[in-house]
Amino acid sequence: MTFRRDLVTLLSVQPRSVSSIAREMGLDRRDVEDDLRHAIRSARASGHEVVIEPARCRQCGFVFGEDKLSKPGKCPVCRGTRLFEAQIRIE
Ligand SMILES: [Zn+2]
């Protein structure tokens, strides 16, 4: 799919979050997340290094799992809602 190839190109320029890609492409965040998972998998399968800087809580520093690509609603530890979104980069 062309869009997935575009995603790989986009992510090899600089680290991006699901929201920023969705905004730039005018797409739903959920759709972007789905395609992003596929793009990451196929990029890894074809030998690219995919670096995921996981989402993080601004308040207590809690780090979410790498599978949490879209912006989490709330921190499970301190219940804070000020969160950094995961940033994805492809080498
Ligand atoms: Zn927290």
Task: Output the keywords.
91 residues, alpha+beta, two-stranded antiparallel sheet, 3 helices, 4 strands, 41% helix, globular, binds zinc ion
What can you see in these coordinates?
- The protein has 91 residues and is α+β, with helices and mostly antiparallel strands.
- The chain is built from three helices and four strands; from the N terminus they run αααββββ.
- The protein has helices at residues 2-13, 18-25, 29-45, and strands spanning 50-53, 56-57, 83-84, 87-90.
- The strands form two sheets. A two-stranded antiparallel sheet has the order 1-4. It has a two-stranded antiparallel sheet with strand order 2-3.
- It is globular.
- The mean pLDDT is 93.
- Zinc ion (ZN) binds next to loops.
Which helices and strands, and how do they pair?
Blueprint: H1 2-13, H2 18-25, H3 29-45, E1 50-53, E2 56-57, E3 83-84, E4 87-90
Bound molecules: zinc ion (ZN).
The site of zinc ion has 8 residues, from loops.
